[in-house]
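Reviewers of the previous submission asked for a worked example of the structure-prediction workflow described in the proposal, so we include one complete record here. The input consisted solely of the amino acid sequence. No template or homolog information was supplied to the procedure at any stage.
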Amino acid sequence: MTARDVHKREAAEAAVATVSDGDVVGLGSGSTAAHAIRALGAGVAEGLDVVGIPTSYQAADLAREVGVPVRAPADVSGIDVAIDGADQLAGDALLKGGGASHARERVVDAAADRFLVVVDASKRADALDAPVPLEVLPDARPFVAAQIDALGGTPTVRGATAKSGPVITDNGNQVLDCDFGPIPTPARLAEQLQAIPGVIDHGLFVGLFDVAYVGTETGVDVIERSCS
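From that input alone, the workflow returned the following structure tokens.
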């Protein structure tokens, strides 16, 4: 395991340590969230009573593998805490969607009473500057791409690696990765992207998380988001 993997695991385990018996837990997708799911599984093996709400097929499969009971969002009355990763963290804004699960992640993360972000230090940035993933309806992709051009972005269809053609999300849609360079006002761009017909969701999560757990060489930094 690399040092970075260790930092991811430590951040995830620190977040999981705040989970209480009886909690309904949103299960994020991606490598750092996977550490959280494994930590929850270890807790279940020791008697922790939790239910997981997965944000992807990958998260659901891993949860079942490690013994975490899973339910659909419609089968629970609420979500106590969601634990999810991010591709970048800057101020109160996150960039997500590297695993193309951001539409389902937003539903679960926003529904949770507490949304805990788990990342390693390499994900922190002064400003978001990576391409923004958009989940789009397949038939709307050319139109959406033209709107991204008009906003000053460069859209690229995300290609699959184990098949020919584009990545297909768990919802049956496609992904455009849209490069805007540094993003000084993520909230404004988020509004513009969400207003484009054919966009199911985008990867800008602004003002949504409550606490970030950042794994570093010297331990886990705990950052509470300012609500001012």
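The first strand starts at residue 24 and ends at 27. We consider this example representative of the routine output the project will generate in years two and three.
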